[in-house]
Each structure stands twice: as C-alpha cells, then as structure tokens.
Design a protein that fits this description.
Length: 351
C-alpha cells in the first residue's frame, strides 16, 4: 500500500499520465526519481539502524551502570550494617567498662559503709563478752547452789544467743555487700520495696552517723522483673548522693523520703531530700557522662550517667530528676512484672 502511494507520487512528478504514450525522457526521469527515492529511503534506514544500535549500546551501558550502582549500594548496606554492629558493640563495651568503673569507685565507699554497719554489733559483742568475763572473775555465781547454777546457765545462754544474733547480723551484712558486686546474668522477679529496703539497710550506719532521718511511704510492694543488683546500684547512688550533699552543705535536720506507688502497669519510686536541690545551671547536665557537681576528689561523674543507662536501657524504665521546694527529687519509673511478662510473650510471638 505504501509502495503504491510512493509509485503514484513519482509518476506524478515525472508527468506520466498515459503509459501507452510514454516518452524516453519521461521514463528516464521516472527511473531517476525512483532511484532518488530508494536512495533516500536507504539512507533513512541506515540512520535508523545506527540510532537503534546506539540506543542498544546506551541501554546496555545504562544497564551495566545500574548493575554497578546496585552492587555498590549492596556493598554499602553490608558495610553500613557491619559498622553499625561494630559501633553498637563498641558502645556496649564502653557501657560495661563504665559500669565496672562505677562499681569499683563504689567499692571504697562500700568498705566504709561496712565499717559503720559493723561498729555497733562488734561493740555489742565486746560488751557482752566483757560482761560474761567479769561475772566469772568476780564469781557472782555459786555453782554449788542449784538455783544459782540455773541462773548461771540461763544468763550464759542468753548472752551466747545475743552474740549469735549479732554474728548473724554481721554475716547478713557481708552477704548483702558481696551480692551487690555479683553481675546479674539474667533478670529476676523481685519487688522494688525489697530492693529499696536493702539499699537503706546498707546505708543505715552512714545515715545514723550523720543524723539523717529516712522515711518510707509504701503504697504497693510493686513486683518487677529486672536485674536486682543494677537497680540496687542506682538506689545506692541516689541515696549516697543525698548523704554527700548533706555533709557538703552541712544541712540541719537532714531528711530523705522515699515513696513507692503503683500507677497502671508501672511502679513509681520517688526519692526526695531537703538538701537544697540541684543548681538550675547543672540540672540539664547531671546525667551526662563525667559531669559531677562534687569536687574532683569526690566525684567521678559516672554515677548518675550509669544510673540512667541502667534504668532506661537495661530495665526499660525512666529516670528523671527535678527540684522541689526543699531539695532534689529523683523519680524512677519501671514496668511491673505483669506488663513485662506480656511484652516478652508478645516479642516471642512476633519472633
């Protein structure tokens, strides 16, 4: 159909209307026009072929470039994932080192606390032993008299039991401090009330020596699933900071109040003191690493940083600090055991 149209166009150009009376000049012009048309079409065909070849080459080059880019992106993703893993591992090791550094820094303080804890029961044991020794030396008991003999036995049994109870207290104190430095391998089910009481017991000697009154308002024991020693470390750090602040500022009638409540699926423990509070300029930075409001010899600047890391990254909770009318207030929020169990079951189902 296209060829027929082209032929008619060439005949028209050669002015051929009657094939029976065609002249040689007309035939020659017609053939010349056909050749020209053929050559023009051939030229267009070759140009089109070259264009197609160039397009194919460009497409191939684009495909190769795209494949290279895909490979580079894939390698970048692999490298990025590895670098992220390396940075996460590096940060994890840094946190572990800081945690260990903080615990080592607290070890000296713990030895001082043990000394305070032991002073009273050791004095009591010494007093009982001296009393028994004096009774014997002064021969206060007549052993020939049966009644006196019973009094002697009763007295000595009572004193021996008293010594036994003091020794048990000393042993219990050592166990508390020894367990504090044991790393927790897995989360345990316990109560926030129990951990708070342990922290208070461990600081009892230091608080009594410095005349610090500590009150507890417990609305709920608040069962949690956590790392007990790490939570204990946080509580000791907050209570010890209050003690240091009282001594540094020489606060009259120092007092600490701990309030434990349950709110929904969370346990909230607030510890506040009447030590004058945290300077407003320092408040936004107190959880930064190596920042301390104490002088260089008394503060490492890691205590509150590690406390926040423990509560928020290890225990899925929140640690906040603010000032109130008379002093500082620290608020610890932790998920209760029930909500933690549901979360773990949900994660197991997704996995």
């Amino acid at each position: 159909m296209i060829a027929e149209k082209i032929l008619k166009r060439q005949l028209k150009k050669a002015k051929i209307t009657d094939f029976a009376h065609i002249t040689p000049e007309q035939m020659e012009k017609f053939l010349s026009l056909v050749r020209e048309s053929y050559e023009a079409h051939e030229k267009e065909r070759k140009i089109l072929e070259r264009s197609i070849d160039l397009s194919s080459m460009e497409m191939q080059a684009l495909n190769e470039s795209l494949a290279q880019k895909v490979k580079e992106v894939s390698e970048l993703n692999t490298t990025l994932a590895r670098r992220v893993e390396e940075e996460v591992e590096k940060n994890r090791r840094k946190d572990q080192q800081m945690l260990q550094q903080t615990r080592l820094a607290q070890m000296g303080e713990m030895l001082s606390m043990i000394a305070h804890q032991w002073r009273q029961p050791l004095s009591a044991i010494s007093s009982v032993a001296i009393s028994m020794q004096m009774k014997i030396k002064l021969k206060r008991f007549v052993m020939a008299d049966e009644t006196k003999q019973e009094e002697f036995e009763s007295y000595f049994l009572e004193k021996i039991e008293a010594i036994g109870s003091y020794v048990q207290y000393l042993s219990h104190t050592i166990d508390d401090f020894r367990n504090f430095f044991k790393p927790n391998k897995a989360k345990e089910r316990t109560t926030l009330e129990l951990l708070l009481q342990k922290a208070i017991d461990m600081l009892d000697g230091s608080y009594r020596k410095n005349g610090i009154l500590i009150k507890q308002k417990i609305e709920n024991s608040c069962e949690i699933v956590t790392y007990p020693n790490e939570i204990l470390q946080v509580l000791l750090n907050i209570l010890k900071n209050a003690l240091d602040n009282f001594r540094e500022r020489q606060i009259q009638n120092p007092k600490v109040e701990a309030r434990l409540i349950q709110k929904g699926d969370t346990a909230i423990l607030e510890i506040e003191d009447n030590g004058g509070g945290i300077p407003e300029a320092f408040l936004p930075r107190i959880f930064d690493p190596y920042f301390s409001t104490k002088d260089e010899k008394n503060g490492s600047g890691l205590g509150l940083y590690m406390s926040k890391t423990i509560i928020e990254e290890h225990c899925d909770g929140r640690l906040e600090a603010c000032n109130h009318a008379l002093g500082a207030l620290f608020r610890i929020t932790l998920p209760l055991a029930g909500s933690q169990d549901r979360k773990e079951r949900s994660e197991d189902t997704v996995a």
